[in-house]
Amino acid sequence: MKGYNVRYRNSRFSNQKIELDGKTFVRCEFENCFIILERGDTELSGCSFKNCKLMLKGNAYTVGKIIKLFTGKSPLRVLETEEPLF
User: Fold this and answer.
1) How far apart are CA 60 and CA 77, in angstroms?
2) Are residues 42 and 21 in contact, defined by beta-carbon separation less than 8 angstroms?
3) Model pTM?
4) Can you give the residue range of the structural domain that contains 56?
5) What CA–CA distances, in Å, run from 22 to 8, 25, 37, 45?
6) What domain count does the chain have?
């Protein structure tokens, strides 16, 4: 694992806003969470996601746009800002 200061192992997150950057998540469960990724500076291993929404910002958003250029389609559904988080 990289030297991330915040590490979660076998944790369960429900109905929360989670920022992934700068953190490690190993065998964690996420349910009904609003997940934010900006730099992509994270480690995810063996995690599961149920009914979560992902918001890409900054560099992560740019990578998402590049994937769309290569594949011709968006890898993710765009979340409208007026849409409720949970």
Assistant:
1) 14
2) yes
3) 0.78
4) 6-71
5) 12, 10, 10, 14
6) 1
